[in-house]
Specification:
By secondary structure, the protein is mainly alpha-helical. It is built from 20 helices and 7 strands. α15 (396-406) runs parallel beside α18. The protein starts with 8 loop residues before the first strand and ends in a 20-residue tail after the last helix.
Length: 553
């Protein structure tokens, strides 16, 4: 930036000029002098009175709350065509939140928040996987019709759609941590309330509210990811799925022990309690420094970064914290259809996400139905009348088979970590979807239960692999300004999978098992074709920051 005047005129994105000073109450000559390399400032102690150098804090950092008027605008790099304007504190040495997190690396702080976030992942698995067992029990105990039984699962994911939309927007306004806390408390309350539901209507209302809370706790993903260094972010997020699998195995094991002895109400009550454990532990997790920065809380962001550095025994970069104001407006759903190619890719991704979710939750529900009847070809033996004398639920052998097939998701994590960067995202998606179709079709064969268990084991693993890979691909294909809205919209489209799948896996299955399985096979094949039509492979690509979609090296 040229220093030809004592103060600079800058133009914000709204076109209005403003004279920006480095610090309120100082003239422009003082501001220019502060940027001099030879200028020194006395050492500063943090607010706790500790020597700041010991915890990675550099002298000269100003802890006052800052606004746009407290910064000096620095010109961007014209050669890169950057669409961002950086408003920096008046010092030549500056760093961003991302640079600070990267300099701290993956250490004990990340281990701590990984374990705390993992508790919530397990708690979410409790509330979702319990649906297959709960619907089975209520079907017999309350003598529900098949559509009523299926709607117990559907209503939760309808609530999920509402919660993801409402809490997602509040998260950007009030903070990730606060919304996650509210959502966890919400699930705890309505989860416990579900165990006391006297009628089906009350159960529907309570489980809908649980679904709303589940949509809100998804904000733990950005809260957690924004504390991870970029070099290990992708692999760490994939490894966090281990906590989900542990939750799946735990709730199925608890069902096998609790339901025969105490009934489903005790199980539903106990399944809500991990949310309480998370609420106690999350007090040790600070708010995301990225949220603190963009909301104007620079002092709190500095404090959070110093805490990360202290835990990891690292030092923060030299200089002052950089705050970036992006001149380009935040993305909207309309931006996903700005160009023909972007619209085409978005529609394909919506369909692929739907099929993957439809298949995953379908096999979860199908496995319960199959293991309770003993064979896919016997799933229609129940008469379609108001007679429940021969109503079948899972026995001890069925629970063991359910635990065995659920454990395949452990193997899926290892497969993703070793293949997705080797073969590429699209190729892995196509191969996995075709394998999914093949093994789904094998369910139509009237084979012994032992072989059915092996087939379901493989399908559960393949479905889990697909979820992980499509999440990675979607994150990489969209440019920065619409990446969040693109991923969020795809995730919302995926919710229609578990909303509709119960009516196939629990209702249609009882009328025509072969046609039901054929629907899953056909959709998997169509999804594989959709992946082939996607225009880009994102393996090895840099994340796009401009308003274009695709792969660049």
């Amino acid at each position: 930036m040229e220093e030809e005047a004592s103060q600079e005129d800058v133009i914000f994105q709204n076109g209005s000029p403003a004279n920006l000073m480095v610090d309120a109450g100082t003239d422009s000559d003082d501001a220019n002098h502060r940027g001099n390399d030879n200028h020194t400032e006395p050492a500063v102690l943090d607010q706790d009175g500790e020597d700041s150098d010991k915890i990675g804090y550099q002298p000269g950092t100003n802890f006052e709350e800052v606004t746009r008027e407290d910064f000096t605008l620095l010109d961007g790099d014209d050669d890169q065509g950057s669409s961002e304007e950086e408003l920096l504190l008046g010092a030549e040495d500056t760093y961003t939140v991302e640079e600070a997190i990267d300099s701290c690396g993956f250490g004990w702080f990340q281990v701590k928040i990984s374990c705390i976030a993992g508790v919530l992942f397990m708690a979410d698995a409790f509330e979702i996987i319990i649906l297959s067992v709960l619907a089975d029990q209520l079907h017999c105990e309350w003598q529900l019709s098949l559509p009523q039984k299926a709607f117990i699962t559907t209503i939760v994911f309808v609530g999920y759609l509402f919660g993801a939309s409402i809490f997602g927007s509040w998260s950007d306004k009030y903070g990730r941590k606060r919304i996650v806390e509210i959502s966890a408390a919400w699930i705890l309350y309505f989860g416990i309330l579900s165990s006391f539901a006297p009628t089906l209507i009350w159960m529907y209302v309570a489980r809908f509210c649980v679904g709303v809370g589940l949509g809100g706790v998804t904000q733990v993903y950005p809260l957690y990811a924004e504390f991870l260094p970029s070099v290990s972010r992708g692999r760490t997020l994939a490894l966090m799925q281990v906590f989900w699998v542990i939750g799946v195995l735990a709730i199925v094991s608890m069902s096998a022990i609790i339901i025969p002895r105490f009934g489903w109400r005790v199980l539903v009550f106990v399944a809500a309690l991990p949310q309480l454990g998370f609420l106690v532990l999350v007090r040790n997790v600070p708010e995301s420094p990225m949220f603190q920065v963009v909301s104007g809380q620079r002092r709190l962001a500095e404090r959070t970064l110093r805490e990360v550095a202290r835990y990891n025994r690292k030092t923060l970069p030299q200089g002052h914290l950089t705050i970036k104001f992006v001149s380009e407006s935040r993305g909207t759903i309309k931006d996903l259809f700005r160009t023909r190619q972007m619209a085409f890719s978005s529609v394909l991704l919506f369909f692929i996400w739907f099929v993957i979710a439809f298949s995953y939750y379908g096999i979860v529900l199908l496995s319960t139905e199959v293991f309770s009847t003993g064979n896919i070809c016997s799933a229609f033996v129940e008469e379609h009348e108001d007679c429940f004398d021969n109503c079948q639920v899972l026995d001890s052998a069925g629970y063991i088979q359910l635990i065995t097939t659920s454990s395949s998701e452990f193997l899926s994590i290892i497969i993703v970590l070793t293949t997705v960067d080797l073969f590429g995202r699209k190729k892995c998606l196509v191969i996995t979807l075709m394998l999914l179709a093949i093994f789904f079709s094998l369910l139509n064969a009237c084979v012994p239960l032992g072989l059915i268990t092996t087939i379901v084991f493989i399908i559960r693993g393949l479905s889990s692999i697909l979820f992980t890979i499509i999440y990675i691909y979607t994150t990489e294909i969209y440019p920065t300004h619409i990446r969040s809205v693109g991923l969020g919209t795809c995730s919302s489209m995926a919710r229609f999978g578990p909303i509709t799948s119960p009516f196939f896996a629990q209702v249609l299955l009882s009328y025509s098992p072969r046609f039901t399985v054929s629907c899953y096979v056909g959709l998997a094949c169509l999804a594989a074709i959709a992946v082939l039509l996607l225009p880009y492979e994102t393996k090895g690509a840099k994340l796009k920051s401009s308003a274009t979609l695709g792969n660049t090296s």
